[in-house]
Amino acid sequence: MPRLTPLTPDTAVGAARDLLADLVSRHGQIGDMVSTMAHSPAVLGGYLQLSRAMGRAKLDRRISERISIAVQAVQGCGLCLDSHVSAARALGVDEDEIERAHAGTSADPAIAAIITLALQVCREPTSITDEQVIALRAHGYSDRAIADVVGVVALNILTGAFNLLAGLTPGAALTAGSDTGV
Known about the structure:
The protein is mostly helical. The protein has nine helices and no strands.
């Protein structure tokens, strides 16, 4: 059961109304998470900025979706997990790799290494070692791609934690928009 009520441009006030009106005018509809985030224009604005910025990440999207699956499996946001599994499938990630991502790994050693890094960023960033970063570079990851992992994890922590707080679950759809985004 949702704990927070979604807002619309008609029910929101101030900056939240402006943000929602802009999103509706550009996208036609907005998802439950975004409309509910509007209770805090700071959170909604931060989410939108981080989401846009991560759209320019250097990580291959098939890898970032597997990272997202691994992080959401740990965090426990079913709405986010479903969304990222669907996105991974749409990008051609096979079911075995989706299952492996859910378990925090991959059959590909390079992808397994970056998923491991992401889970460390999520759980215990002090455990990351110089040797680990060197090994990621040896797998072909640039410093930018390695740094992008922090952004992917941060975005997942933000969306997952918000959805869990708000009580947004796969079965608790409130509006016709997309599950987690705009």
